Structures are given as C-alpha cells and as structure tokens.
Amino acid sequence: MRLIGSQEHEQEWRSNIHTLGPFCLLLWDYPFDNKSTEPGTMFYHGANLSDESISVFKKDCLQEEDKTKRSFPAFTSCSRNRQIAELYGNVLFIMTVKYAFTVDITTFSQYPDEEEELLSPGVCFTVERVESNGSKYMIHLNLIQQYSQANRPEINDHPPNNHLTFDNDNRLSRLGFGDHLNRIAAVLNDNDDDYINNYLSTVDDLTLDFNLLGCTLSDGDPDRFRDGSDKDW
C-alpha cells in the first residue's frame, strides 16, 4: 500500500487499480466488525519522532476552537497497556476514543501480551495537549471517526453489469458479504474512462508520503500530513 503515489512504482500500482480498489473497499467495510469502540477507551502508541514533527503537534494543541482534524494514513497498531507502549520511542501517544472503529487483534497477534488494538486508516484525531517529562513527550489525542459520505452513493448505487455478478447462493454472500461483493463487482466491471480517471485522481489525492506516527518514506515531507480533507477514505 505504501507504493501508492510513488513515481518510481507508479506503473505497478496503476496497473492494478481495478483490484486495488475492491481490496481497499473490503478493508474499509470490514463486515465482521461494525460496532464502534466504547467511548472513553484509552489506547497507547510509542514512536520515534523528530523535533520538527513534534513541533507540528505542539502547534495543533494551541488551537482552542475548530481544532485541525488529522487522520492516520495507514493501519496503526497501538496497545491498551500504557506500560508496554512506553517502552518504545521518544513519544508516547495517549489516545482517547470519542467515537471510532477499532479492532481488538489480541487473539490474532504473535504478541498477545501487548493487548494490541488496530486503528483503521482514516480515523481522525485532534491534538489536545503535549507534555514532556524530559526524556519523553506525551501527546494526547482524541479519536473521532469522521469521513465524508459524498462518494459513497456513487459506489453503492452503481449497478454491476452482466460480466460479473454474485448470486445469493454464493458462499461469501451467505457469510454476509453480499452487498460488499456487488459493490466490488460494480468497480471491477466499470470501464467508463471518466469514472476510472476520477478514481485515479482520488488515489493521487491520497498519496501517503508521511506517517504521523513516525514512519517516514524516503521523500517524506513533515508538512504534508493527511488532514481532514483526506478523511473520505
């Protein structure tokens, strides 16, 4: 997924756009977990950040009204156990759920003792305050599940053609994937150039060249955070 937006690998990811889109849709609409996380739940994440990156968080927390909403550009692992997260990095993110969808992956993790929770891409947050004890920064975030519904009807209402359909007897349909499969079929069967170009344009807008939690690409620019304008996906 980190190849998206890379000029070096542009042909590679663009050539897979018709399978990448449905794959992203399945991840986004994860059908087995549609319940939001209990408000007030606390998550923790340790990371190594540069002084320049930390300064961005400091600037955000000075806003008293209409705080900037930023979003996580990738699946982000965190822990319910603060002591574990404190073992890593020079920054501890302390996240309070206001309204968000997360997944408890403790039973699937190779390290179940870490009490691992997974944040989905696009989960938004605001920076409430930044503290320091001399050796580590504590950055307090409020998690807010926000995204625009503007583009969803275009996918939901776009009927699949006869080239690819999924009937009700399909095994995945019986497992609850029926609606998701039909929407994927719509994307796979869509050969309209304008629609495809619009899709490519959307992907361009979501170029991930910097991860707020400390994972930087080679050409990362700390001024190009994903903010509220990217929360559609």
TrEMBL record:
Gene3D superfamilies per UniProt: Toxin ADP-ribosyltransferase, Chain A, domain 1
EC numbers for this chain: 2.4.2.31
GO molecular function: NAD+-protein-arginine ADP-ribosyltransferase activity; nucleotidyltransferase activity
Pfam families hit by this protein: ART
Annotated catalysed reactions: L-arginyl-[protein] + NAD(+) = N(omega)-(ADP-D-ribosyl)-L-arginyl-[protein] + nicotinamide + H(+)
Record's keyword terms, sorted: Glycosyltransferase, NAD, NADP, Nucleotidyltransferase, Transferase
Domain of life from the UniProt record: Eukaryota
Record keyword Glycosyltransferase present: yes
Family: Belongs to the Arg-specific ADP-ribosyltransferase family.
Descriptive protein name: NAD(P)(+)--arginine ADP-ribosyltransferase
Lineage: Eukaryota, Metazoa, Spiralia, Gnathifera, Rotifera
